[in-house]
Hints:
By secondary structure, this protein is of the alpha+beta class.
Amino acid sequence: MFKIIFLFTFNMFLFFSNLFALPSASVLINTLHTTLLLKTGSDQKLYQAYFGSRLTNTLEYDHLPLFLEAYTTSGMNNLFEPAIRVIHGDGNPSLDLRYTATIQEQPEPNFTLTTIQLKDPVYPFFVTLHFKSYYKEDIIEAWTEIRNEEKKPVRLSAYASFMLHVDAASYWLTQFHGDWFSEMRMEESRLTSGIKILDSKLGTKTNNYQSQAFLLALNKAATENEGEVIAGTLAWTGNFRYAFETDNNNTLNLSAGINPFASEFALPPGSSFTTPAFIFTYSLHGKGEASRNIQRWAINYGILNGKGKRETLLNNWEATFFDFDENKLSHLIKDAAGSGLDMFLLDDGWFGNKYPRKNDGSSLGDWQVTKTKLPHGIGNLVKEAADKGIKFGIWIEPEMVNPKSELYEKHPDWMLRLPNREEDLSRNQLVLDLNHPAVRDFIYNTLDSLLIQSPGLAYIKWDCNRYLTNAYSSYLGQDQSRLFIGYTLGWYSVLKRFRAKYPTLPMMLCSSGGGRVDYGALHYFSEFWPSDNTDAFDRIFIQWGYSYFFPSLAICSHVTSSGKYSLKFKTDVAMSGKLGYDIVMDALNDQEKEYTRDAIRNYKRLSGVIWHGDLYRLVSPYEGGHAVIMHVDSSKNNAVIFSYNLHTPHFGHTNNTRLEGLDTVKMYRVKETDLYPGTKSGYDFHEKLFSGDYLMKIGLNILRNEALSSNIIELIAENQP
Ligand code: GLA
């Protein structure tokens, strides 16, 4: 590990500034292909001199103009959206930040930590910018620590994680928005002058209407392989806000961070506040490269056990809903094992005794197994699964409470609800107050007890099915300004405690589908449930949206009875993510059962490439009747192509699809796989050998005119001369 310290203390600043012009400091944050350069001006303010494709000639850094402060303040001469806004204890509503020091260290060969200290020349108020730059993945994480050493509290009403200033002729923002059942709809628009805000005020389930992932193309709308693109997201499972402000010079100033809405708070003397990390990357080669940078980073650093394996499973939610008993579960467990799946996941409806859970109207909070429904307990089901050679997982929604529950009766002060107003129920439930230490203990102990009582439990699906409305914490009392932030931090503290004891237990992040999908949470979770919409056609679009920011191994995708499509189409859609099932498998006919067993076997064979390979989006469902994606492993020896024919015309010519990411000189055996029993591949290239060069320049005629059909094609490099 090496460490460089450019220390220029504030006292030195005052002393030297009277004597001669100050030396300027340059802070260089490089990754393999990008440069972020921050420099001080003669006024000792810190400016963002450059962010973009890697600059090679350090001698030319002096040519870069310095006019945009790296972390803009408010109350003095900045007339645009500030990164930070404070009111000091004496009422002074301004902040002036001057550079004092930089520390750079390299704890591992692949990443560098950079810390830049700034200080107000008059007030003992400090801002420290932190950067963690991942060399190979071309990713930078940026976050900020704000420290008040004044004698009185300082009010904070803006506290971005970081800002980027970008200079281009035009800016094209791709956002991902939607709602329950229609998550991650992709939309691109040209930014006009003024501010475009992407934010959430939902408190929990914060991504339900708007994802915190975005792509920003410079100069022209980018394609998968062409154009300059910045991709960004925020590691925060709470209210977030991005302001994309195009100023009078047509410069884009982007501030990213927690949404200060309803969260303007006072920072007490002697304390500090640390923002979550803004994660971003830059690509000179379109959205595809930006997305692969994020995915590689996620696999290596961003997701719990990103480099590891995932387990295929049978979930009973859409198979039974609340209507199950031990006998039904036994059959499902047997079917899961018989089909070759790794696990059975018991969903909602297993808990509550005074008020047994029969529908979504009761029992959340009473996390004891319903004795009348499952008299032999969870442990017995775990054992039954183990006897059949599979694992057992369980659903839980531990942040919530139904008024019809023992928990609600016992702890009226534990939930978030406004005094003097009617309770605002959503899905018949309220949210527990994670600001309250007793609530945090309760949630931790609930999970811990479950795992202690049933030691074989191998998986948890953690759900969160409502927003924060009418939110008020009786624990916080008069000052509610930390409610939203405190909720998210409280949630993280439970997860941190849980992970200290159970570091590797796989967990699915769920929030009525994809209401909570971000890298703040995925640090603790191995995968997520992208949508309650399991219609295979809709899922192609939903999974397409997620694929820009999340690797396939994290995107749970289940075969269900939703939609009138062939079993093969449904399975092929599910196989491009983390495969699972949510059907009564025994209701399949013999041929379907045979196909399903083969499909699971195929998936296990291909899953290394699907989970850890590079993703190329070849044909977009947004542009016509087809969607094609391709995964290529790092050795470029194995690849898998998923091709979906949507609402295509029944006749007409289809063009070749050029493949990507292969080795030009390698020879690949191209084979259609996952064929339905009794069918043969209709492709004339099936079983033939092609060079990577041919496949990437000429391509293959993969697309078909048969609507709502699909094909999976496997490529294996052969040792050919
Ligand atoms: C949410 C989840 C579903 C299921 C139900 C159970 O809607 O998204 O997958 O677990 O809750 O109530």
